[in-house]
Design brief:
Largest sheet: 8 strands, mixed
Family: Belongs to the Gfo/Idh/MocA family.
GO molecular function: 1,5-anhydro-D-fructose reductase (1,5-anhydro-D-mannitol-forming) activity; nucleotide binding
CATH class of the largest domain: Alpha Beta
EC number: 1.1.1.292
Helix content: 25-40%
Number of domains: 2
Number of strands: 14
Strand content: 15-25%
Organism: Occultella aeris
CATH superfamily of the largest domain: Dihydrodipicolinate Reductase, domain 2
InterPro entries: Gfo/Idh/MocA-like_OxRdtase_N, Gfo/Idh/MocA_domain, GFO_IDH_MocA-like_dom, NAD(P)-bd_dom_sf
CATH architecture of the largest domain: 2-Layer Sandwich
Structural class: alpha/beta
Distance between the termini: 51 Å
């Protein structure tokens, strides 16, 4: 196998993107990755962090060299130095916190899943559009070099017409207590918004939105979705076979099958990984990008679009994001995983 072929495309260098001054809203686990990777790998900086606990904000700021810490989200979004806010709170709070930042005139990058439902996502994007501000879900996979390579192969027609997609995402979370956000309905817990979103978003990225969604699975004792198998069918007849669970650490691989070959994404498919193209006729070849900071690519995309005066990214636009949320809404409905207020 060769290491790079003519049909592969490469991602833009995150370090070449314009600078943007970020504020982090909610210094949780995922925010640590953002705080570490963005200043080290892009021209952008993290200038402030906000938490409901001032001590926690100060500790986080000290750990990552962030100059300003606030004991409230309102103070964070009011900071004139902050141009864009990375929202890393639980899903149940995403809409409220995004509207807070947008109301203060800040662009937003909201952790996936962007909200609890398609309806909430529509509200968020409408608020951004009304103010002429950038808003995007932090689905980092869309911007990683291996996914840029995948789309280059698909666009070349090398594997022909796409017939099916398969993807899985399983993590062993059996040790979590019922109050943990992953098992707590009040915090929009469950596999769907944290784990299944990756296979579903991947299927949408390759096939587009489906016209049919079928889901089967199980719920936890707290009523959130635990394990699920989901099939999607598009208007073209292409299908997706998707699986996620909180009960097992699966291989987390993905495959795109075409009439003239297939593309294999090694586990973990949604993070930097190896892509192998296996055409029906010809030699297989692989691409393993050198990526030290996966979050930098989505942050660089935000900076490019903001500096261009644009309010969304064509790689992950509002319409597409809402379509993913609508698929998850329907799958949760079929599973009986109802969140408070629904």
């Amino acid at each position: 196998m060769t290491t790079l072929g003519p049909a592969f495309e490469t991602a833009q260098d995150p370090a070449a993107a314009p600078a943007l001054r970020w504020g982090i809203l909610a210094p949780g686990g995922i925010a640590r990755k953002f705080a570490a990777e963005i200043p080290a790998n892009t021209a952008s900086s993290v200038v402030a962090v906000g938490s409901r606990d001032a001590g926690r904000a100060r500790a986080f700021a000290g750990e990552y060299g962030i100059p300003t810490a606030y004991g409230s989200y309102a103070e964070l979004v009011a900071d004139a130095q902050v141009e864009a806010v990375y929202i890393a709170s639980p899903h149940s709070e995403h809409l409220e916190h995004a509207l807070l930042a947008l109301g203060a005139g800040k662009h937003v990058l909201v952790e996936k899943s962007i909200t609890r439902s398609a309806g909430e996502a529509r509200t968020l994007f409408a608020a951004a559009a009304d103010r002429g501000l950038f808003a995007m879900e932090a689905m980092w996979t869309r911007f990683l070099p291996h996914m840029i390579a995948v789309h280059g192969v698909l666009d070349s027609g090398e594997i022909g017409e796409v017939v099916s997609v398969s993807a899985e995402h399983g993590q062993d979370m059996r040790a979590l207590g019922d109050e943990h956000r992953m098992r707590n309905p009040a915090l929009a817990g469950g596999s769907m918004l944290d784990l299944t979103v990756y296979p579903i978003s991947f299927a949408h990225d390759i096939l587009g939105p489906p016209e049919q969604v079928t889901a089967v699975g199980t719920l936890t004792s707290t009523g959130v979705d635990d394990t699920e198998a989901i099939t999607l069918r598009t208007a073209s007849g292409a299908v997706a076979l998707l699986h996620a669970t909180m009960r097992s650490a699966t291989a987390n691989a993905a495959t795109i099958n075409g009439t003239e070959g297939r593309i294999e994404l090694a586990g973990t498919f949604y993070a930097p990984t190896t892509v192998t193209v296996r055409p029906r006729h010809g030699e297989a070849r692989s691409f393993t990008p050198e990526v030290s900071a996966g979050f930098a690519y989505q942050a660089a995309e935000v900076a490019r679009r903001v500096h261009a005066g644009e309010t969304f990214s064509p790689r992950h636009d509002p319409e597409g994001t809402i379509a993913v949320m609508a698929t998850m809404d329907e799958a949760r409905r079929q599973l009986g995983a109802v969140l408070p207020g629904e």
